[in-house]
């Protein structure tokens, strides 16, 4: 009987495995094939071996762009995780206000990336945008040709767009905490910090790990926002690795080099995500 149930359970997963095969495995295999070939027009391939990997790993521009992407990801996570938890702590656990606040923080998540980039491109423009024109008029130092200003605007866009995801995950974790824990803390006259440190934070561990991994992988692939707002400038200051891959593949038509860079990027992301996951889980075991 148990063997029959296991067989049926495996059969139920076959459609999902088929979708996964077509959406993930086959595209990756295509990229692997391109990474070891020299591709010419008309899909004419010449075996190149590991030359594209060697060229990518020897490229100073690749490492600079990768470092820029990691810096952006680090700043995004350092801002959004604490901010999302703080906002979630301020939302009531029930009632009409709770519903209202959840809807408000969820709205940016429903807006497509391209639309977000277009909205902030107009909004942050120092000539026509209210945000850009206002700051330019007040400070006189607002200029998207300044690397620090360009970085600040792109980070602001990401925080506005994705902090709501952290808020929703953290809020779900907070709501799941039994009230008996809070009653016990009240009897013991625990401070607000003690409640957060010893009751809420340990029980938010798994949801915050999910939020961390989601933001890690997504921010490493950022493309639309910097492309729409700064076009990667000034002087490549906001050119991240995803933008460089698109430039190499779609504009220079160097499919082999772009594929090799993409595979290295994926391996770096997987290694970083797995290392972070293992370290955090081992720390709390």
Summarize the structure.
The protein has 285 residues and is an all-alpha fold. It has helices at residues 2-35, 51-57, 60-90, 96-106, 113-123, 130-139, 147-175, 179-187, 192-203, 205-220, 224-229, 241-251, 255-284, and strands spanning 37-40, 44-47. It has 13 helices and two strands.
Keywords:
13 helices; mainly alpha; 76% helix; MetI-like fold; 285 residues; globular
How would you sum up this structure, described in words?
This protein has 285 residues and is mainly α. It has a single domain (59-284), classed as MetI-like (MetI-like fold, Orthogonal Bundle), CATH 1.10.3720. Helices cover 76% and strands 3% of the residues. It contains 13 helices and two strands, in the order H-E-E-H-H-H-H-H-H-H-H-H-H-H-H. A two-stranded antiparallel sheet has the order 1-2. A hairpin with a 3-residue loop joins strand 1 and strand 2 (44-47). Helix 1 (2-35) crosses helix 13, helix 2 crosses helix 13 (255-284) and helix 3 (60-90) runs antiparallel to helix 10 (205-220). The chain starts with a helix and ends with a helix.
């Amino acid at each position: 009987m148990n063997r029959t149930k296991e067989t049926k359970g495996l059969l139920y997963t076959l459609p999902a495995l088929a979708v996964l095969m077509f959406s993930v495995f086959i595209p990756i295999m295509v990229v692997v094939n391109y990474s070891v070939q020299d591709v010419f027009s008309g899909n004419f391939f010449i075996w190149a071996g590991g030359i594209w990997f060697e060229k990518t790993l020897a490229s100073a521009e690749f490492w600079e762009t990768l470092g820029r992407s990691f810096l952006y990801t680090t700043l995004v996570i350092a801002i959004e995780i604490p901010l999302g938890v703080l906002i979630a702590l301020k939302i009531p656990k029930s009632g009409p206000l709770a519903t209202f606040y959840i809807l408000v923080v969820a709205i940016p998540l429903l807006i497509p990336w391209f639309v977000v980039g277009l909205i902030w491109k107009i909004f942050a423009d120092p000539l026509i945008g209210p945000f850009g024109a206002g700051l330019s008029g007040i400070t006189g130092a607002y200029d998207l040709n300044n690397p620090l200003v360009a970085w600040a605007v792109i980070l602001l866009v990401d925080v506005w767009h994705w902090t709501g995801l952290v808020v929703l995950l953290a809020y779900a974790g907070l709501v799941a905490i039994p009230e008996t824990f809070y009653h016990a803390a009240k009897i013991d006259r625990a401070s607000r910090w003690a409640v957060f440190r010893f009751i809420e934070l340990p029980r938010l561990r798994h949801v915050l790990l999910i939020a961390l991994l989601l933001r890690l992988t997504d921010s490493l692939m950022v493309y639309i926002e910097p492309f729409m707002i700064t076009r990667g400038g000034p002087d490549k200051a906001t050119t991240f690795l995803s933008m460089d891959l698109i430039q190499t593949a779609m504009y220079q038509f160097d499919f082999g080099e772009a594929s090799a860079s993409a595979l290295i990027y994926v391996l770096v992301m997987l290694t970083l995500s797995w290392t972070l996951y293992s370290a955090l889980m081992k720390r709390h075991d």
